[in-house]
Amino acid sequence: MSLIPSFFGRRSSVFDPFSLDVWDPFEAFNLSISRDIAPSREFVRDTAAVANTQIDWKETPDAHIFKADLPGLKKDEVKIEVADGRILQISGERNQEEEQKNERYHRVERARGKFLRRFRLPENAKVEEVKASMENGVLTVTVPKQPQPKPEVKSIAISG
């Protein structure tokens, strides 16, 4: 099938430069996915939770600042670690609310499940001085930077 309409009843072919037919090498295979290899609902939910955890990383002259939107989470449900020397790891879990007997959900769109985000910190990060705070569902992680060494300037006297 061509993305450009054929005029005058032309049929697409391999030799037609305006044909955008793409050969699919898997076309001959039956691609019906069996239940054994299809991703589980839990996997899809957890993947959505990871993908929906949005984090901003900005650099100021003094620090690297990470801000994560984590609505509905308490600070004890979030874990912040520095692993392997310079990898900042932010993880946690959004739990599912228990459904009451007299309640029925019509739609569940809020992500739930475990989330994990990792960031490789630059060489100038002071990983031993990382600080974190959480306010109104926004996690702020501050990683101070080591000051840049100022280049030495040496005056040279001119002889003669």
TrEMBL record:
Keywords: Stress response. Pfam families: HSP20 (PF00011). The keyword Transmembrane does not apply. It comes from the Eukaryota. InterPro entries: A-crystallin/Hsp20_dom, HSP20-like_chaperone, Small_HSP. Residues 46-160 form the SHSP domain. The keyword Lyase does not apply. PANTHER family: HEAT-SHOCK PROTEIN 20 FAMILY MEMBER (PTHR11527). Belongs to the small heat shock protein (HSP20) family. This is SHSP domain-containing protein. It comes from Araucaria cunninghamii.
